[in-house]
Amino acid sequence: MSSVLVVGSVAIDSVKTPFLSRERSLGGSATHFSVAASFFTDVGVVAVIGEDFTAEDEAVFRERNIDTKDLERVAGGKTFFWKGEYGFDLNTAHTHDTQLNVFAEFKPKLSADARKSPYLFLGNIQPTLQREVREQVDAQFVAMDTMNFWIESARDELVKTIGVVDALIINDAEARQLADEPNLIKAAKQILAMGPKMLIIKRGEYGAACFTEKSFFATPAYPLENVFDPTGAGDSFAGGFMGYLARTNKPEDMMCVRRGIIYGSIMASFNVEEFSCDRLRRVTSIEISDRLTEFKQFTHFDLDETLANSQFEPTKAKSSTSAPRAR
Amino acid sequence: MSSVLVVGSVAIDSVKTPFLSRERSLGGSATHFSVAASFFTDVGVVAVIGEDFTAEDEAVFRERNIDTKDLERVAGGKTFFWKGEYGFDLNTAHTHDTQLNVFAEFKPKLSADARKSPYLFLGNIQPTLQREVREQVDAQFVAMDTMNFWIESARDELVKTIGVVDALIINDAEARQLADEPNLIKAAKQILAMGPKMLIIKRGEYGAACFTEKSFFATPAYPLENVFDPTGAGDSFAGGFMGYLARTNKPEDMMCVRRGIIYGSIMASFNVEEFSCDRLRRVTSIEISDRLTEFKQFTHFDLDETLANSQFEPTKAKSSTSAPRAR
User: Fold this and answer.
1) Helix axes A29-37, A55-62, angle to 10 degrees
2) Quick check: is A137 in a domain?
């Protein structure tokens, strides 16, 4: 079995950005997640592909030693296809085309080996399907993603699934929509009341935050001068997070969770620097370490011991404060 | 003279939020700035008011020992008036009415005393006016704010003014607009090339960032469950920042700058908890210290020394990675 198992989509993406476009690249939540997680631990992927999944696509998994035993190939089928475009600010993807193809009939049945994975990530798929997978795996720590589409169209099922995971990893807007509450702190409380032990909020260029019943953590994002393709950033984040958590295997240790969030942010930062998983595939251990060190540096400040409480007052009273000057 | 001098607006605001509305409250950039800064050092305010400025309004300055010698009262005039409304998410203010009144003829002539202030903040007013004030003050450190209106309508004048200050304190969108560049890191480089030594980016609920030629710092915001009125948040931020910088008087020490940004964030967090300066006026030293400690806690993570570089690889190779299972 693998330390981390992911269920999600393996997709063929056609992506257009303000800089360049590419007709066909390997994408999907399970792809970005597993490549990112593979830098920390051994990973298995549960997904479905069609006949059009090439040897080159497969190499992305193989070269990272990702277990594809539970990657199901449907004879005569076509792989899930997504065509999207990003605007000037690279913040929002406009979907031009979505073809579910083999994904429409996806009913993940896990191998005996996969069922033993201690860490499980439920990528952004139909919430009932997520729960069915969750029930098949005797995992010690389960995290999940979701999106506005499921919040709107399958809310009850989604809330049930959220009730049986340890961590929900979504973005700001999804958290607000899920709780129907504009204040994120209030929204987080409501979501934690649905069952999960932690809520991790992805904020894109603004970083990430983590809420538990008793704690709060927030970090800015790694500053990137060249964002090339944001597709898969959230899944790479989740991959780095879960990979690190599985490696250290102390999900109840909040310092490990915090570090996991930093590693997740780092993997997401690499992911968006090039199309598809191109940059992630080339990442080296040293580059990951370097960004970790940078993270520590650009977020660091120390407390000022010389500024005692009693001194938070004006240093002298003014005699002239009562009379504004006349014109 | 005061350690910190601010030039900006003193206004009467009429604010409507999803929770409540208030017909008349004291506002304006110079007001929020000076109240926030007054917790750290002595502050003087350069602004203009009309006959409708009441003894109660004046008390806000007096009780914080803010020097109002250069607060000019125009006989028969009306104070600058702003009427605005915030939507459900409290992010955007919709302006219903703006009456410049006495502000239209505002030509700040500073007293000899005010001209000696070592720290100067140029609130969001016409950029030529900002520069005229800057030239009157023999300050050691000058920061300024601006807004989309000036970027659009007085760009050349604005760029000139940016060229004669040490720090520009604006928000994300303003930085992108000013540099005509969607990537914030690239935008920051362009803005620093205009002259200032540092660019501080206010990100509202996402925190703040600081760029210099050689360094980067970013922090999330203090998590607030109850945001009541965002009016003046940016000016309170600038007030906390400049107040702390003036108090410690080491503007070239980046650790002081970082702490200043944290104190700015703290003062902004108090500011938005109630209408006008109501909450800021009641803040205690202990409350400021407590939020500083919390800031340190919720942003803290340590590096994982046990995760050596060489270990960022899967723990074992998989024999099963080459053959996806057939259905």
Assistant:
1) 40
2) yes
- Express each pLDDT in A287-298 by its tens digit: 999 999 999 999
pLDDT surpassing 90 at residue B27: yes
Nearest CA in chain A to B326: A73
Q: What is the mean pLDDT of residues A126-146?
A: 97
- pLDDT above 80 for A206: yes
The pLDDT of residue B319 is above 50:
no
Mean pLDDT of chain B: 92
Model confidence, pTM: 0.93
Q: Evaluate whether residue A310 is within a structural domain.
A: no
Q: What is the mean pLDDT of chain A?
A: 92
Q: What is the pLDDT of residues B163-188, one digit of tens each?
A: 999 999 999 999 999 999 999 999 99
Question: Does B248 lie at the interface with A, CB-CB under 8 angstroms?
Answer: yes
CATH number at residue B246: 3.40.1190.20
Neighbouring residues of A170: CB distance < 8 A, sequence distance ≥ 6: A145, A146, A147, A178, A199, A200, A201, A202
A53 to chain B: nearest residue by CA? B324
Closest to A242 measured CA to CA, from A299, A177, A165: A165
Structure-model confidence comparison of residues B305 and A149, the more confident one: A149
Query: Residue A113 pLDDT more than 80?
Result: yes
User: How close A244 comes to chain B (CA, Å)?
Assistant: 10
Phi then psi for B26, rounded to 5 degrees? -70, 130
Give contacts of A 136-165 with B, CB under 8 A. none
Give CA B182 to chain center in angstroms.
21
Residues A264-277 have a mean pLDDT of 96
**B274 or B312, which is more confident:** B274
Q: Is B90 on the interface with A (CB under 8 A)?
A: yes
Contact check, Cβ <8 Å, B75/A247:
no
Residues B288, B264: Cα–Cα separation, whole Å = 11
Give residue A88's pLDDT. Answer: 79
CB B321, CB A61: distance < 8 Å: yes
Number of structural domains in chain A: 1
Q: What is the pLDDT of residue B326?
A: 56
Domain assignment present for residue A146? The answer is yes
The predicted complex's ipTM stands at: 0.91
- Asked, for residue A314, whether it belongs to a domain, the answer is no
**Structural domain containing residue B282:** 4-300
Q: How close is the nearest chain B Cα to the Cα of A295, in Å?
A: 9
The alpha-carbon gap from B225 to the nearest alpha carbon of chain A, in Å, equals: 5
The span from the CA of A85 to the CA of A183, in Å, is 30
Q: Which long-range contacts (CB under 8 A, 24 or more apart) does B21-28 make?
A: B21/B85, B22/B275, B22/B276, B25/B275, B25/B276, B26/B57, B26/B60, B26/B276, B26/B277, B27/B82, B27/B231, B27/B232, B27/B276, B28/B80
**pLDDT(B132) > 70:** yes
Nearest beta carbon to residue A315 from set B41, B72, B311: B41
